Amino acid sequence: MPIEMAIGYSNFVYRPPTLAKDIKNQSEQAPWHFRLMLGWEETVATVAAVYDRMTPSEQSECAILAWRYGDAGAIDFWGRNYNLPKAISGHTGYYFWGPKEYSGKLVLSVGGNLSFLKQRFDSVEQVATVTHEKSVGIKSNLPIYRCRGIKKPLNELWSDFKFYFKRPT
């Protein structure tokens, strides 16, 4: 269903809260549970294009680190269509699944803090950017970084990647 039709239908049937702080025209905004999924397949296609340029040896040791659980879920859901490995993420519940068996020698970071990554890897290079054109989405200009030469094994650094939503006090 086209996004405009989905928004109209959702607004007619049920108007859930939105993540937007300043909504000028609520009828044109996608509800938050739809907005989180906008652009998923485009994000995964961009990650897959970077992954496909790697050698088979690089692919076998590559971890895909998503900084938001929504992007990790997108990779896990849509990634099978692109032969991508399962994602890892330190965001919310994904953190508890850990770094799996990935060594961290080669990591594609979907989003992330560049200075954080540079402190933990010898080499960090932005290799792509995911850009979403739909104004109703919440993602735009999401960088994809290729990280090489992790300074400590990923399983030892895993707690550094933990990120939860915190309630305001």
Protein topology:
Blueprint: H1 3-13, H2 32-35, H3 40-52, H4 56-61, E1 62-66, H5 69-78, E2 87-88, E3 106-110, H6 114-120, E4 121-130, E5 142-150, H7 154-157
Parallel strand pairs: 1-2, 1-3
Antiparallel strand pairs: 3-5, 4-5
Helix pairs in contact: 3-5
Can you put this structure into words, describing what you see?
It contains seven helices and five strands. By secondary structure, it is of the alpha/beta class. It has a five-stranded mixed β-sheet with strand order 2-1-3-5-4. α5 (69-78) links the parallel β1 (62-66) and β2. The longest helix is centred in the first third of the chain and has 13 residues, at 40-52.
Major sheet: arrangement of strands:
2-1-3-5-4
Helix content: 25-40%
The total of helices stands at 7
**What is the terminal-to-terminal distance?**
40 Å
- Chain-averaged pLDDT: 84
Are there runs of 5+ residues with pLDDT below 50, and where? Answer: none
H/E series: HHHHEHEEHEEH
Number of strands: 5
> What class would the helix/strand composition place it in?
alpha/beta
Tell me what portion of residues adopts beta-strand conformation: 15-25%
Task: Summarize the structure in short.
The chain is of the alpha/beta class and 169 residues long.
